[in-house]
Amino acid sequence: MQQYGLSAKDLSVYYGPKQAVKNVSLDFANKQVTALIGPSGCGKSTFLRSLNRMNDLIDGAKVTGEIWIGEENINHPKTDVVSLRQRIGMVWQRPNPFHKSIYENIAFGPRYHGVKNKKQLDEIVEQSLRKAALWEETKDRLHKSGLSLSGGQQQRLCIARSIAVKPSIILMDEPASALDPVSTAKIEELITELKQEYCIIIVTHNMHQAARISEKTAFFLMGDLIEYDETDKMFTDPEKKETSDYISGRFG
Amino acid sequence: MNAKLADRIATAIIVAVSGFIVLLLAGLLGYIMVRGLGHFSYDFLTSPPETIRAGGGIGPQLFNSIFLLVLTMLITIPLGLGAGIYMSEYARPGKFTDFIRLLVEVLSSFPSIVVGLFGLLVLVNAFDLGFSLLAGALALTVFNLPLMVRITEQGLKSVPREQKEAGLALGLSKWKTIRSIMLPVAIPVILTGTILAAGRVFGEAAALLFTAGMSSPRLDFTDWNPLSPFSPLNPMRPAETLAVHIWKVNAEGLAPDAAEIAAGASAVLVLTVLLFNLAARWLGRFMYRKFTATK
């Protein structure tokens, strides 16, 4: 189990009577990028959001099955969700920095989790921003609002914010789909950089993006996991007809 | 009729209607000010009213209005914030919350004279509070609380869901997320609502007639012990507010300058509300900036 950052076993998600994700089992390796692709409404985002128990927030949503991180099944009623979410970072489609200063956006999480020393916090802020390739652009304006940044910078700020609390896994829900091509390229570069340390799971609509940045790709359709393999193989020689139809653009 | 013409006519009508409203407001405000300002003096603002002779002031009434506002808000804001946060973030949407919401709506549209009578029967008599600032503040809370609950709920609901999720995804507790991430974003909305609620306190008369009472004891502005019966700070003393005073002077004033006093007091009331609004807005912007580091 240890070689995997995270493993889902027979994971199903229900919204009321509707089953949005159907018995999906997937292993996500450490220090790798795994892309989840599929047409809109195929359940890939829902699947992603159940990995850090974000679906708990949605009324009527029910997640069955197991999610293993190391020796712990985190999809268990007794799991401490608050401390779990510290171990799993998340980045959304639209950049959502807190309405706080750039510094506070990053320092907020670590401070809440017990880092009170100003020097240490300064260090965490700098390191996180450096890792997110945002330090040079923001070091002179750390106390300006996070909202004063451009969209692409905001998204990198959100990535910096999530790595500041030292997660081992980062979930990304179409992190570049609201950004321009230049910012997208920067985010992709950043993801390739980050995978040296983290287990990254990324939902994307953009198949070129999946091909560029991921080691493994999982294809979802109507809540089912159709195929899961090395990205290279998926895009050149997929096993299933649905996969090749989707990848070659015949639907979706 | 072509689309262009229709568009022009619609624009003209909308501009005319807005212009009419602005004129009406300006006229009303101008009338009150012109009639009232002539009566302004330091003496008028600070001295107590006279029953029979001319030259009475509105000092205690002005103080009562402001003190009543503070008392009411001290009760309303914590309760309203708490209930609003509960309704928005903790209660599961369903029949129960719909029922609470219905109660809240009904409560806020209660005729104020009915609330006044309720205050007289329950607060003043049954609870034996007597005609007092506290009874008045509690009666006003009946109107203000629903407004405050609804505004807080709306304010929190208007915070983008991603903000809340981002807080939770960082491993913050629910309460920490609400307190430190969501409430600061919701402050402008909540503050606007609070100002509206506060404005009602200044303007309300009917609900106060039978609760805060229609008289004010001779206040001793050197005595700040809240337990002393002549201290301005004593919440258990009767307190006639400015709005009630205007009504009383107009209805049964015996002083020869009753009309001028009413006009002057009206102008003071309007100005106070205006100043209060400006101050509250400034405070809100200041708080928002402090919490969110914008500009």
TrEMBL record, chain A:
It is a peripheral membrane protein. One of its GO terms (biological process) is phosphate ion transmembrane transport. It is found in: Cell inner membrane. Keywords: ATP-binding, Cell membrane, Membrane, Nucleotide-binding, Phosphate transport, Translocase, Transport. It comes from the Bacteria. One of its GO terms (molecular function) is phosphate transmembrane transporter activity. Residues 6-247 form the ABC transporter domain. Its main location: membrane. Pfam families: ABC_tran. The keyword Translocase applies. One of its GO terms (cellular component) is plasma membrane. InterPro entries: AAA+_ATPase (IPR003593), ABC_transporter-like_ATP-bd (IPR003439), ABC_transporter-like_CS (IPR017871), P-loop_NTPase (IPR027417), PstB-like (IPR005670). Coiled coil: none annotated. NCBIfam families: 3a0107s01c2. Part of the ABC transporter complex PstSACB involved in phosphate import. Responsible for energy coupling to the transport system. This is Phosphate ABC transporter ATP-binding protein.
UniProtKB/TrEMBL annotation, chain B:
One of its GO terms (biological process) is phosphate ion transmembrane transport. Belongs to the binding-protein-dependent transport system permease family. CysTW subfamily. It is a multi-pass membrane protein. It is found in: Cell membrane. The chain crosses the membrane at residues 12-34, 66-87, 99-123, 129-149, 181-202, 261-280. PROSITE patterns: ABC_TM1. This is Phosphate transport system permease protein PstA. One of its GO terms (molecular function) is phosphate transmembrane transporter activity. Residues 62-280 form the ABC transmembrane type-1 domain. Keywords: Cell membrane, Membrane, Transmembrane, Transmembrane helix, Transport. One of its GO terms (cellular component) is plasma membrane. Pfam families: BPD_transp_1. Gene3D superfamilies: MetI-like (1.10.3720.10).
